[in-house]
Amino acid sequence: MALSLPAIMKTTAARLSALYLLLFALCAVLLVFYMTSLSARMLTAQTQDTINDEVLGLARAYQRGGLPVLVRVVEARSRQPGANLYLIADTNGQILTGNVQSLEPGVIETEGWTKEPFSYRRFGEGELERQRNPVSDQNETQSGENEVQAQGEKGHNAIALVLRLPNQMIMLVGRDLGEPERFRAVIRRALMLALGMMGLGGLLIWFFVGRTALKRIDSVSEASRRIMGGDLSGRLPVTGAGDEFDRLSENLNSMLARIATLNEGLKQVSDNIAHDLKTPLTRLRNRAEATLSGKHRTTDYRQALEGTITESDQLIKTFNAILMISRLEAGYSSESTSRVDLAAAVRDVVELYEPVAEEAGVTLESSVEGSFAVDGNRELIGQALSNIVDNAIKYSTDSTGKPGVRVTLERVGGEIRLTVSDNGQGIPDDADRARVTERFVRLEKSRSQPGSGLGLSLAKAVMTFHNGRLDLLPANPGLSVVMSFPGREEH
């Protein structure tokens, strides 16, 4: 989706990019000025050192032979290629010798270093200029001072050291600034070009990378709108780049999958309540209606009320189990967790169900190899184990041999496995074993055994809460229900 420039600038990424670009440009400009200024200072200092060396050499020549020797040395050095500026003038400022034809007015009036760069023309440059651009006779007849000033303003720039000789004559030794200025200009152009290229590169990177990021944000927003519209099967796009957008999308997709699972569970609970709780509620109503119709004895009313209370208790247990399963599947429990001794929990459950098993004619045995402890909730683990043992006792009575249930506790690899096995008919079909842990699912068609079909559902929810798993495996004959806890070695 295309965005206008004002809309783009409202995004955080665009604002941060613009801020970084502004700071970068400011630092780059400061760097340009600093480098050019530093280069100019270094070249000026180097030029002054060169002029000082020249002045020392001329001073030694003057000491050897006076003015005649000084003049000869100046003329000799003036004719050398790439020579410095040399000038000797009389007390009135008239140029006597050297390679300088004209100077900017006022340069030789002050002794010492020139405060600012001045304009000058080398000897012979004026004649060459007139040959290239002939001038009128009127211009040729102008005064010498105006000619010198005009020529100086059109000449080169230089710095110089002005000295007074003992006879009051003036000597100037200078150096042209053309090379330093060209060097400084080259540095300035290079830095400005680098600044321009980096700025352009930054804009291009911002445009393409920012555009890609905006497109991904738009796709995430579009997917979010579809999900908010009711399409819970939709997921946020994942490109596979592994960046922060992919990590965010993966986490949100996991959250959406979890929400979809909870919604599906809520739908199943609603359907199960509508179907499986309708029968006991109808039975309660029919019993009450039958009791109220006609005349009955006091004992009949009492029996009807006792049956109603029993059915109500069973309904309350069913609702409590549903609430517990929903809370555990949502990953929340108000119950506290601590180190749980599984061996003690097995002994308590086996001791509790020994009378029940004996009454049903079932042999109940336990085998615990060592002491095992896990982080969890003792009451929840005990409830889950009780449900599994109760189911094993009920469904082992149809065994062809001697009915028996065995509870074992052992460590297998990095897991602690609590197994309840019976020798009944079991569940031979794999699909039925996967389906039996759902709410209100009962494979027994006749429904001759008491129960609501929530025991294994609660056990599965308890194992999920403890980061474990519940597996149903064929025992040949019978069924083995394995509660696998993540275990750690005891030291």
Automatic annotation (TrEMBL):
Annotated TM spans: 12-34, 190-209
Database matches in SUPFAM superfamilies: ATPase domain of HSP90 chaperone/DNA topoisomerase II/histidine kinase, HAMP domain-like, Homodimeric domain of signal transducing histidine kinase
Domain HAMP: 211-264
Pfam families for the chain: HAMP (PF00672), HATPase_c (PF02518), HisKA (PF00512)
Keyword set, alphabetical order: Kinase, Membrane, Phosphoprotein, Transferase, Transmembrane, Transmembrane helix, Two-component regulatory system
Matching InterPro entries: HAMP_dom, HATPase_C_sf, HATPase_dom, His_kinase_dom, HisK_dim/P_dom, HisK_dim/P_sf, Sig_transdc_His_kin-like_C, TCS_sensor_his_kinase
Disordered, as annotated region: 129-152
Catalyzed reactions: ATP + protein L-histidine = ADP + protein N-phospho-L-histidine
Enzyme class: transferase
Domain Histidine kinase residue range list: 272-489
GO CC field: plasma membrane
Name of the protein: histidine kinase
Species the sequence originates in: Mesorhizobium metallidurans STM 2683
